[in-house]
Design brief:
about 400 residues, alpha/beta, four-stranded mixed sheet, about 40% helix, globular
Length: about 400
């Protein structure tokens, strides 16, 4: 068995399909986001503008967050000391879980090391505990949700994206006595569209199903206090489990679920992804705690971000660039080819100091490769105009279609 040959062939396939991933070497400039330094492909740092960060509100740069992390570092040290059961259950963790439960109007919350882990651990554990459970999953659900569903070993039914008629057809076909769980996202981050939460909850009520919503691209971003689309649409009380991340709008790291105390206790007690991993550093938790508390009180960041996203979409449309329809803060620009998407990204970085990563399969279906822009509250109008002009020049250079 030639192991090296197998590994070489696997990597060669990615190169031949134009979707080999390169991780750009950058460092953000504290207090000056979206400005950063790039060390990729040249000697010494080169100034760049970041356009693809999931730190949507620049909270990773916020003085309150940085100060809270510095204070915690000097108060308790760097690491947590172990799992939550063995030394890693700090007062910071308990305070943050209380804040997150309050954010979503739930009885309790549970922290995980990432949003991926919270999805995988919760979905797999919950379904295993429900005899004969069938999970109904939107076809565009995130890889972490798919992993959790697969790891549960239960039956699954995939419904066409946001298609309520198809979801009801699948629900109606199942044994009424079997446990059912409907899993979906609020904001789908590659297209920027939103789930019809109340319609899904209506079907859950009709067919006696539990509901699980992934709000990772919405928490902090929507609702009067940053509770996500479920808060904005006054639907949080209808959702059994709300899952979110602490590494996007809140700007630090981690994941969580919020639910009633019985569900929280079950996942806390049975999920290997929670039980057997070192807990988040209290330094990180202190930073998130400051971020969550700030965004509960301040809408300025959300409002500036939404205004900038709307402006960038408008500039792209007016320039004839193929911006996809999006009702959220996500600004996707369709390319439709992995090689061209990578080429555009490379030119932007090398010639214009603009950093945006191409999004290729398997993150999106083949033939729908795109650039995904996430303007934040600190991207100014001049940056957006310069970006648009750069894209128009590149589209012309590569002889890509510009709308009339």
């Amino acid at each position: 068995m030639n192991y090296d040959q197998i590994f070489d062939q696997a990597i060669d396939r990615l190169h031949s399909e134009g979707r080999y991933r390169i991780f750009i070497d950058i460092m953000r400039n504290k207090g000056a986001y979206p400005n950063a330094r790039c060390f990729h492909g040249h000697n010494g740092p080169k100034p760049i503008t970041v356009w693809c960060s999931n730190d949507y509100l620049a909270m990773g740069q916020h003085p309150k967050v940085i100060s809270a992390m510095e204070d915690a570092l000097h108060d308790v040290g760097a690491g947590s000391g172990g799992t939550r059961n063995i030394g890693g259950n700090t007062h910071f963790h308990l305070e943050l879980e209380g804040e997150l439960a309050d954010l979503h109007g739930k009885q309790g919350a549970l922290l995980f090391t990432s949003g991926y882990v919270s999805n995988d651990a919760t979905l797999s554990t919950l379904a295993k505990l429900l005899p004969g459970c069938v999970i109904f999953s939107d076809e565009l659900n995130h890889a972490s949700m798919i992993a959790g569903i697969r790891n549960s070993g239960c039956e699954k039914r995939v419904w066409r994206h946001n298609d309520m008629a198809h979801l009801e057809e699948l629900l109606a076909a199942e044994d009424p006595d079997l446990p059912k769980l409907i899993a979906f996202e609020s904001v789908y981050s590659m297209d920027g569209d939103v789930a019809p939460i109340h319609d899904i909850c209506d079907l859950a009520d009709k067919y006696n199903a539990l509901t699980y919503i992934d709000e990772v691209h919405a928490v902090g971003m929507y609702g009067a206090r940053g509770g996500g689309i479920s808060e904005r649409d006054e639907a949080a009380h209808r959702i059994d489990i709300i899952e979110g991340t602490l590494g996007k709008a809140f700007g630090v790291m981690g994941g969580y679920i919020a639910a009633d105390t019985k569900i929280i206790d079950v996942i806390r007690s049975y999920a290997p992804g929670f039980i057997f991993t070192t807990s988040l550093s209290p330094v990180l938790v202190a930073g998130v705690l400051a971020s969550v508390r700030h965004l509960k009180e301040s809408s300025a960041e959300r409002e500036a971000q939404q205004a900038n996203a709307a402006a960038l979409k408008r500039y792209f449309r007016e320039a004839g660039l193929p911006v996809m329809d999006s009702t959220t803060h996500i600004v996707p620009l369709m390319v439709g080819d992995p090689v061209r998407a990578k080429k555009i990204s490379d030119i932007l970085l090398a010639e214009y100091g603009v950093y945006v990563q191409p999004i290729n399969f398997p993150t999106v279906p083949r033939g729908t490769e795109r650039l995904r822009f996430t303007p934040g509250p600190t991207h100014d109008d001049a940056m957006m105009r310069e970006l648009t002009e750069a894209l128009v020049e590149i589209w012309d250079r590569l002889e890509l279609r510009i709308a009339a």
